Amino acid sequence: MKKSIMSLAVAAVVAAPVIAHADATLFGTFEAVMKKEATRSAELTDGGSSIGVTGTVDLGLEDTKGIFYWEQDLDVNAGALVSGSGEAHLGATGSWGTVIGGKFDHATITMVSDYTDITYQGSLESVDGFDLAPNSIAYISPDMNGVTFMAGGVFAGDLGPQKDRQVDAYNLGVAYDANGLYAAAGYGNMKNTKAANAYAVNENLWGLAAGFNGIENLDLRANYTRQNDKAADEKTTAWNLSAQYDIENTALYGVYGRSKEKQANESKESYTLGAAQTMGNGAVYAEFVGFAKAYKSDPSTKNTFLVGYQLNF
After folding, report:
1. Which residues form the Porin domain (predicted)?
2. Please, are residues 259 and 237 in contact by the beta-carbon 8 Å criterion?
3. The whole model's pTM is what?
4. How far apart are alpha carbons 229 and 127 in whole angstroms?
5. Where are the domains of the chain?
């Protein structure tokens, strides 16, 4: 349950008695996971706990208010925040849309790559590097009969000894979500860290996502992303399929994904099967995560069975 923690009224230091208001809400997730990987002992780990504050500020404008958001990962085993993690941004919103600046996920992540990420701890094949990008600015349109678009840029200054481009990256996305149907497309481009007239980062990415939830209690989703890394001369593709069936407060779900690097001629395959029981703002769940193909040669990637407990407020 979200808790209101702050309500302020500050008089302006001018003759006119202008009053400004701010409201903030504390929110968070505490999550612990007991997991057993093949050939390894069981381990109790943090499952992605975080804490944050979000709120609005009265700007004295009829149709526009200021907004802010801060979320930080924390580790329940360490009893401490995780440095450098999480999302933070500030901006303004109104009937005209929303503008934010800071560190956040761009459209190719929120509309496409993460669309099939329906598990708690399971697998997802992705080649998208626009997650939690700092130095970012974005505009998000209002909902227009189910259609929303987002346009953003990354302004990171000069990351090397030479002058970079003014815009180090840009990201565009559009999504339709109505009448039991979902469809989205996104495109992103990065080019920065110039040295000796060459860019250390020079890549583009595009992706598509689609879903259908017109059948009662059933949710079907799919996505596809393709990355062209010109600096590394590598093209990588990834796709995922997911399905979830709900029986009152019980969810049965699965995700299957594959990715392939063209030049390296390497393919990866992963899947997750799970069941979850929600209880108000909490949940318990069990998942099996399997890995195949190139994952088999990675000693850090093992088939895993896990049980988790999550509390949200």
Report:
1. 9-282
2. yes
3. 0.87
4. 10
5. 33-48+96-312
